[in-house]
Amino acid sequence: MTTRPLDLLDVDALHSQEELAIRAVVRRVVDDHVRPNVAEWYEQGQVPVRDLAREFAKVGLLGMHLHGYGCAGASAVAYGLACLELEAGDSGARSLVSVQGSLAMFAIWKFGSDEQKDEWLPRMAAGDAIGCFGLTEPDHGSDPASMSTRARRDGSDWILSGGKMWITNAPVADVAVVWARTEDGISGFAVPMDTPGVTAREVHHKLSLRASCTGEIVLDDVRLPASAQLPAARGLKAPLSCLTEARYGIVWGALGAARDSLHTALDYAGTREQFGRPIAGFQLTQAKLADAAVELQKGYLLALHLGRRADQGVLRPEQVSVGKLNNVREALAIARQCRTILGANGISAEYPVMRHAANLETVLTYEGTSEIHLLVIGQALTGIAAFS
């Protein structure tokens, strides 16, 4: 008798039947629409974003933790489980849902006007409109307070100038939530991507997150009406709160890549024979599998604890940093370790492990590098900011 990794501590017993049912639905969608195609998408560096978004929308995945406007209003834990299942398929699938719901939709939902919410959120929840989130710039990643993008008044209008880089969904997006510096501080704007002066260029030659659409946004004196400004978004705290939403999903999502890698390694080790027996019977292989399973369990319990706190309304940003730092770091270590169990076959697209490991290199970096999260935790422990 064998035990699957997340059955080791019977973590399903910690969930409600509703949570497990949501997980089962998302797992089925991933099995039907991601797994059969993702190796080809990854190899080609192309993904059918709109088709995927509509399939995800059919089961309420887009903005699923938001309320109203056609959103599912699911719990934070249910959303986390969905992120885990999506990233077990591929980090790109989870990124699509995360950027759409936790960044673009959340920003409009939390900071937008009633008109902006009515215009965009129902269409985005249905997968009929794709959103992106323009914060990172070519020269300003970990230090968004130094952003170069500017918004200036011209009568009642705004004129936006600058550029954003590494923006998921940008090449296919219908709306971008763009953050810019104004004379009054940082402000957010809902920018239709067909506005004159807006250009989106796809980033090619990626070696990671290839089943995801990534782009650069160029803003060349883009004229927007006053109504494009997100009225409740004032200061850097606004975009950072959106990042906290998205980082929470990553805490769970990274575990999906780790779980899929470990499942693959277990299955492979049980059937691959060397020296007359399955390699699962060798002590060194079992040590690798056991270490990976233990770290996966610990990461899961951490994610679940953070999810319960989120549902209670008491989750703090530095706690999300703990989860993002630990779970992505450990998921990457698990994927790398599992790759060694597959030997030479580990680098083949026939197996998902190398793809997960490569994707997690990006997940380690985006939405706060490990170094930034270490400093967030350090500031919480000492009361001293060490960012500069």
Automatic annotation (TrEMBL):
Keyword ATP-binding attached: no
Gene3D superfamilies cross-referenced by the UniProt entry: Acyl-CoA dehydrogenase/oxidase, N-terminal domain (1.10.540.10), Butyryl-CoA Dehydrogenase, subunit A, domain 2 (2.40.110.10), Butyryl-CoA Dehydrogenase, subunit A, domain 3 (1.20.140.10)
Residues in the signal sequence: none
InterPro entries assigned: Acyl-CoA_Oxase/DH_mid-dom, Acyl-CoA_Oxase/DH_mid-dom_sf, AcylCo_DH-like_C, AcylCo_DH/oxidase_C, AcylCoA_DH/ox_N, AcylCoA_DH/ox_N_sf, AcylCoA_DH/oxidase_NM_dom_sf, Glutaryl-CoA_DH_mitochondrial
Every Acyl-CoA dehydrogenase/oxidase C-terminal domain range: 234-381
Residues in Acyl-CoA oxidase/dehydrogenase middle domain copies: 132-222
Cofactor: FAD
This protein's UniProt keywords: FAD, Flavoprotein, Oxidoreductase, Transit peptide
Domain Acyl-CoA dehydrogenase/oxidase N-terminal: 16-128
Similarity comment: family membership: Belongs to the acyl-CoA dehydrogenase family.
Name of the protein in question: Acyl-CoA dehydrogenase family protein
Species name: Dactylosporangium roseum
